[in-house]
Design a protein that fits this description.
Low-confidence stretches: 1-32, 34-44
Helix content: 25-40%
Oligomer: single chain
Distance between the termini: 95 Å
């Protein structure tokens, strides 16, 4: 088993390549932002002066805006490469999935097995039988890149690392990570069947930081101590973040580094400024300095050229009349908020929204069913849309419902007549 190469080791080789720039607008799916326009990728360009300023040494890289999923810059982003400890992003994603499901809690105690203790490379030196909370294990993984902590968590969740890895690959497939396959949960393996791409790393990074933003509270920590309690006694151990950008780059809040002699140097860097969250992924850099330099260069490009427009869509767009239902009308709401990332310096204040909603609907109606659509336009061009959905269920009215309705109307009319006579 190959010992992990520590982040501080310096490399010397350098190479130049011709940059290929592919810019894609992808309005994100899921619960974060609106669906892309008719499922197509919309193309935009960052100014030629800015993109010409960017020269990367690393073999492959990508810059993505988190809320929309838009690719701002890329270089061989779909080339298959070794992920090293970047693998742990998926491990962390599965941990937070279990926390959300309620199958796992931050205060739960995790026992370290002999196998987990035996992991080489970057580690936090857990002893066999040692117990640590889930929260401490998360810190050990994301701050110090602990292989032993990763395996201990995998065994705690799935019973074995191999079963956990199956779940990792299933999750990757669900995210559309077409150039990824995992063989372990920490990236220590030398297997040729353990690979990913810069694009896929950005995808899983985006899923983690947008669905579970709490991870950034841990990944942004520079240094923290944990306490080992074993048969040897109690002792403190210092965790130091392997991501130097957390300390050196303004706004950097994560996420994960990786390095082996085969994978060389990788990083998925997450930074926030002015309401924009960017994910900068660098793979197969020749040394740790180039890794951070290339990541920072892409972040600079993104923050210098991007502006994010967001419509939270909190107010109801209106009501729909229901025919043949137990209710005569129901309100509707927006399925999600709308996000649009501009990289061309457009005036996003001029974005207009047009509502297209049903006037009537036949019962039965189910909550969440589509009731219409809100389209967004910039300078007369459609840039995206958000579905409008019904807020509640409405059953189809039966004979008894109509009878009760008639009786109610009759009683209301009678009460009104009595009131008027008085």
């Amino acid at each position: 088993m190959l010992t992990m190469v520590v982040d501080e080791i310096k490399g010397s080789c350098k190479m130049r390549t011709i940059l290929a720039v592919v810019l894609s607008v992808i309005l994100c799916t899921g619960t974060v932002c609106a669906m892309p326009l008719e499922g197509k990728v919309l193309q935009e360009e960052v100014g030629s002066e800015k993109k010409n300023e960017l020269e990367l040494t690393a073999q492959s890289a990508v810059l993505m805006e988190a809320s929309t999923g838009k690719i701002i810059y890329e270089k061989d982003m779909d080339t298959r490469v070794k992920p090293a400890s970047i693998t742990k992003i998926m491990t962390l994603l599965l941990i937070f999935d279990e926390l959300e499901k309620g199958n796992l809690h931050m205060e739960d105690q995790v026992v370290t097995s002999a196998y987990a203790k035996s992991m080489g490379g970057s580690q936090v030196f857990l002893e066999e039988g040692e117990k640590q909370s889930v929260e401490t294990m998360i810190k050990c993984i994301v701050i110090a890149s602990g292989n032993d902590a990763s395996v201990a968590m995998a065994e705690h969740i799935a019973g074995s690392e191999s079963e956990f890895v199956k779940r990792m690959n299933e999750r990757a497939a669900g995210l559309g990570m077409e150039n990824t396959h995992f063989e372990d949960c920490c990236g220590l393996t030398e297997s040729d069947n353990h690979y990913t791409s810069a694009h896929d790393v950005a995808k899983m990074s985006r899923e983690l930081v947008t669905k579970y933003p709490k991870i950034l509270e841990y990944s942004s920590v520079w240094m923290e101590n944990i306490t080992h309690v074993t048969y040897k006694g109690s002792s403190e151990f210092g965790l130091t973040n392997t991501n130097k950008l957390v300390r050196s780059y303004d706004g950097c809040v994560g996420l994960k580094t990786g390095s082996t002699s085969v994978a060389k140097y990788c990083v998925s860097a997450v930074a926030r400024r002015n309401g924009i969250t960017l994910i900068s992924v660098v793979m197969t850099a020749p040394d740790y300095k180039v890794r951070f330099k290339d990541a920072a260069a892409m972040l600079n490009l993104g923050f210098g050229s991007c502006k994010l427009y967001t419509d939270e869509n909190t107010k109801s767009p209106g009501t729909v009349q229901i025919k043949g239902g137990v209710l005569e009308e129901i309100s509707c709401s927006y399925k999600e908020k709308f996000c649009y990332l501009d990289t061309k310096g457009a005036n996003t204040d001029s974005i207009q929204k047009k509502i297209h909603m049903k006037k009537t609907a036949e019962a039965p109606v189910k909550k969440g069913e589509k009731a219409g659509r809100a389209d967004y336009y910039l300078d007369g061009k459609k840039i995206g849309s958000v579905d409008l959905v019904f807020d509640r269920n409405v059953k189809k009215a039966k004979y008894r419902d109509y009878l009760e309705k008639i009786c109610k109307i009759f009683l209301q009319g009678r009460e009104k007549n009595i009131s008027e006579k008085k």
